[in-house]
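pls design
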C-alpha cells in the first residue's frame, strides 16, 4: 500500500517580472515541487484568502510601496491588501515583515535607524545626513550645518525603492551647488573609500560579500556638481571615469575584515527582524571605519 503523501508546503510569492526572470521562476517552481513545496504567484488585485491557504508569503513589494507613496491607487490597494492579510493571518510567515520593509523604504528613516543602532559602535557608522525638503538655498544650507553634514555631499532621492529614479544621485562640492539637489532628498556626507564598495548579501544566517567598483575619492572645492546613477557606477563591469582614482590618492587601503562584516549582518538581521537583506558598506580611507551607506530589502 502506498504511503500517504504529506500535504505540500504552500508558498505564495509576489515579485516583479524582472525579479521573476532573474530567478528563473519556472525552474524554481519545478525544483520546489520535487520537494513537496508549491509556489503560487499572487494576484495582488484579488483577495489573498481566495488564493490560499498559505504557510508562507515571499514578497518584494518595495516598488509597490514607493508607488503607493506617490498616490498610485492600484499600488496602494495592493499593499493594503497584503498588510490586511498579514494582520488577519498571524500564522502565515511573511518574508520579510512588512513593518521592517517599510523602515527601509525612505532613506531618512533608514539612516535614522542606523544612526540609533550604531551609536555605541566605535568601528561602524552611517555618515552624517539630513533631509532637504525644500528648494530654499538658505534653509538647506542651515540644515546641512546643523546636522554636521560636510562637503562633498551626496544628494539621494527621498525614496529608496522607487525604480530607476531611486538611483539618480549627485555629488555636491560646495554651498553654491546645493541648488543642484533635486528636492525632496537626503543629503549625506561623502566618505572617501578608494572607489571600492562592499555589497553584503544576506540570506537568513548566511551571507556573502561581493566587491564592486564605486565612486572615486572626492574633496570639497569649486568643482561643478557631478550627477550619476549609483546602479551604473557600481556594476561589476563599470568603466566609468568616476571609478578611477586620481594619482594623488593613496592605494594602500585598509583591508576588509570579515568579522566586522559578520557583526554588521548579525546586528541588522536582529534589529530589523529580516532574513533577506542587501547592505552596502564602504571603508573610510582615512579612519578605517566601516560606513553603512545603504540597506535594501530582498536585493
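designed seq:
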Amino acid at each position: 500500500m502506498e504511503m500517504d503523501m504529506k500535504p505540500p508546503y504552500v508558498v505564495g510569492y509576489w515579485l516583479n517580472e524582472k525579479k521573476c526572470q532573474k530567478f528563473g521562476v519556472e525552474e524554481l517552481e519545478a525544483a520546489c515541487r520535487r520537494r513537496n513545496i508549491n509556489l503560487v504567484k499572487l494576484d495582488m488585485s484579488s483577495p489573498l484568502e481566495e488564493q490560499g491557504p498559505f504557510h508562507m508569503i515571499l514578497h518584494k513589494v518595495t516598488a509597490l510601496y514607493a508607488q503607493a507613496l506617490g498616490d498610485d491607487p492600484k499600488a496602494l490597494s495592493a499593499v493594503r491588501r497584503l498588510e490586511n492579510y498579514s494582520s488577519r493571518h498571524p500564522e502565515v510567515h511573511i518574508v520579510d515583515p512588512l513593518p521592517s520593509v517599510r523602515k527601509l523604504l525612505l532613506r531618512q528613516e533608514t539612516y535614522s535607524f542606523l544612526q540609533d543602532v550604531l551609536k555605541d559602535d566605535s568601528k561602524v557608522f552611517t555618515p552624517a545626513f539630513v533631509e532637504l525638503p525644500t528648494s530654499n538655498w538658505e534653509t538647506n544650507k542651515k540644515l546641512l550645518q546643523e546636522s554636521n553634514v560636510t562637503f562633498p555631499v551626496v544628494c539621494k532621492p527621498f525614496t529608496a525603492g522607487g525604480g530607476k529614479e531611486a538611483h539618480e544621485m549627485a555629488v555636491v562640492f560646495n554651498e553654491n551647488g546645493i541648488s543642484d539637489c533635486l528636492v525632496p532628498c537626503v543629503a549625506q556626507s561623502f566618505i572617501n573609500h578608494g572607489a571600492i564598495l562592499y555589497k553584503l548579501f544576506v540570506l537568513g544566517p548566511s551571507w556573502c560579500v561581493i566587491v564592486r567598483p564605486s565612486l572615486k575619492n572626492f574633496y570639497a572645492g569649486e568643482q561643478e556638481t557631478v550627477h550619476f546613477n549609483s546602479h551604473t557606477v557600481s556594476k561589476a563591469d563599470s568603466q566609468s571615469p568616476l571609478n578611477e582614482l586620481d594619482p594623488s590618492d593613496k592605494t594602500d587601503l585598509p583591508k576588509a575584515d570579515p568579522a566586522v562584516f559578520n557583526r554588521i549582518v548579525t546586528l541588522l538581521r536582529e534589529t530589523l527582524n529580516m532574513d533577506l537583506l542587501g547592505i552596502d558598506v564602504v571603508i573610510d580611507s582615512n579612519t578605517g571605519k566601516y560606513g553603512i551607506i545603504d540597506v535594501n530589502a530582498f536585493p
